[in-house]
Structures are given as structure tokens and as C-alpha cells.
Design a protein that fits this description.
By secondary structure, the protein is mainly α. It has one domain. Helix content is 77%, strand content 0%. Helix 3 packs antiparallel against helix 4 and helix 3 runs parallel beside helix 8. The longest helix has 51 residues. The protein is globular, with a radius of gyration of 27 Å. 26% of the residues are buried.
């Protein structure tokens, strides 16, 4: 066998294994390809080392959130006394108010991520904004479900266009629009900046929700900071504190999980693009 024929056979075998097309000559990009792949491999190894510690921390946070939720459920169901006027329906409050607070946390994360992306334009800030909006939608839906169940007993109707209810619904719809926008539009810089602007503007409604009762009145009580009643027993206040702790940990765990998933998806897309640039995966 001629030496040239053996070399061609060797190249053909490698091409068959990798599923790529053999090129007769190497250009400048081909000569730089091994260096780029080596740099990417070193970066991935460093990321894997850092992700090991973050995985442990995330597992601890997730376990703490689960324990807090289970503990809150048990405390509310078996320890907290039943409120005299509203009965057992009043116990919805221990989940309704913390869910509203958790929605604020998700919306704040979306605002910070959106502002960071407009300023820096990096993937991490964009992923933080997306994750925050998703958490805000999830917690906002809990607010919109538990609120009418409580209102049906307190007001006799499931829904009324109360200032706080209306502004809360508006906020949830803003973040639903953000999530839909990111899911069904492109992923170019223009779409990202448009969504980031929406995330920044959406945060402007959060103070309006908080002060809507003071500014415009309405039926919504101010149980925690006002004289709305319902927290006369010390165990009731303790249960509300447990609820805030549980939903804080839950929202942070959801935010972290969604952030990890989005960053991993973005990194996978980058690796696929790099593989295509060096010829891996071509037909």
C-alpha cells in the first residue's frame, strides 16, 4: 500500500467515526480549530468544577424550602387556631400574602436582570430576567387563585375591581406577556432588549400595588400593617412568619433552578454553533 493511500484511509476512518466530511486541505480556520476546542474544553472543565459546589448549595436550598413548606402546612393545619368570624377559610391568608411577597421577589429579579442586560448585554443577566419573570408568573397565579377563594367568604364575591386586585392582575399579565414574548419570538439582541425594556417597565407597577389601598381605598384589608384583623393570636403571627420563610426559600429555589437551566441551554447552543464552525456534525 502506498503511504498516501494509508493516510487517506486513516482520514476516512476518522471521518466515519466523527460523522464529518473529509476536507482535502486545511485552511486557516481549520488550523485554529484545535486551539479553539482546547480553550472551550478548559473553560468547560472550570465550569464543571464550580458547578459541583453550586449543585450542593442548590440541593441544600431545595431541601430547606421543602422542609419549610411542609412545616408551614403542618403548623397552619394543626397548631394555628381557627379565626372566629371567617372560620377555616382565613388560613388561606398564610399562603396568599407570602405568595404575593414571592411575586415581588421574582419581579425584582426580572427588573435587575433586565437592567443588567440593557447595561452589559451578557447572557447571565438575560437568563436572570427570564427566570425572575417565570417566578413572578408562578407566584402571581397563586395570589390570583387564593385571593378569590378568600374573598368569596369575606366579601361574598370571588372578584371585584378593587385597586389592589386590579393592579396585581395587571402585574401578572405584564410578566405573562414577558414570558410569552421570550418563548415565541426570536433570541436576537433586538428581541432581548425589547423584553428587557418590558421587564424594567413592569417593575414600576410594584409600588403601585403596595400603596394602592392607601391611595385609593378599596375592600382589600391591610392585615399586617393596618387594622385588618385576623392575627390576634401569637400562633397566627408565627404561622405568617413561617409562610414568608417558606415562600422566600421556594421562590429562590425556583429562581436558581430556572437560571441554571437557561444558562445550560445557552451554553449548549454555543457549543453546537462552535461544533458547526469547526465542521463537526456536518453532513
Amino acid at each position: 500500500m502506498l503511504p498516501g493511500a494509508g493516510l487517506c484511509a486513516h482520514r476516512g476512518l476518522n471521518a466515519a467515526v466523527l460523522g464529518t466530511t473529509v476536507r482535502p486541505s486545511m485552511g486557516a480556520d481549520d488550523r485554529r480549530a484545535p486551539h479553539r476546542m482546547a480553550v472551550a474544553a478548559n473553560g468547560d472543565a472550570a465550569r464543571r468544577g464550580a458547578s459541583g459546589g453550586s449543585t450542593i448549595a442548590f440541593s441544600v436550598l431545595l431541601a430547606a424550602a421543602a422542609a419549610a413548606i411542609i412545616g408551614t402546612l403542618h403548623f397552619v393545619a394543626y397548631v394555628v387556631p381557627t379565626e372566629a368570624s371567617m372560620g377555616i377559610v382565613q388560613k388561606i391568608f398564610y399562603f396568599h400574602a407570602p405568595a404575593g411577597y414571592a411575586m415581588y421577589l421574582g419581579a425584582t429579579a426580572c427588573f435587575i436582570g433586565s437592567a443588567g442586560y440593557l447595561a452589559r448585554g451578557t447572557q447571565w443577566w438575560d437568563s436572570l430576567a427570564k427566570s425572575g419573570a417565570q417566578v413572578a408568573v408562578a407566584m402571581g397565579l397563586i395570589v390570583l387563585i387564593t385571593g378569590p377563594l378568600w374573598a368569596a367568604k369575606a366579601w361574598g364575591v370571588y372578584w371585584t375591581w378593587d385597586p389592589r386586585l386590579t393592579t396585581s392582575l395587571l402585574s401578572v399579565l405584564i410578566y405573562v406577556a414577558y414570558v410569552v414574548l421570550r418563548a415565541f419570538t426570536g433570541d436576537s439582541d433586538a428581541e432581548r432588549k425589547f423584553a428587557a425594556a418590558l421587564g424594567v417597565l413592569g417593575a414600576a407597577n410594584l409600588p403601585i400595588i403596595h400603596y394602592s389601598v392607601k391611595m385609593w381605598g378599596g375592600n382589600h384589608p391591610t392585615v399586617i400593617t393596618g387594622k385588618g384583623g385576623g392575627l390576634g393570636h401569637p400562633d397566627m403571627k408565627l404561622a405568617l412568619g413561617f409562610g414568608f420563610l417558606a415562600f422566600t426559600l421556594l421562590s429562590l429555589a425556583l429562581l436558581w433552578a430556572r437560571l441554571r437551566v437557561d444558562l445550560a441551554s445557552a451554553r449548549l447552543a454555543e457549543l453546537e454553533q462552535e461544533a458547526l464552525e469547526v465542521g463537526i456534525g456536518e453532513d
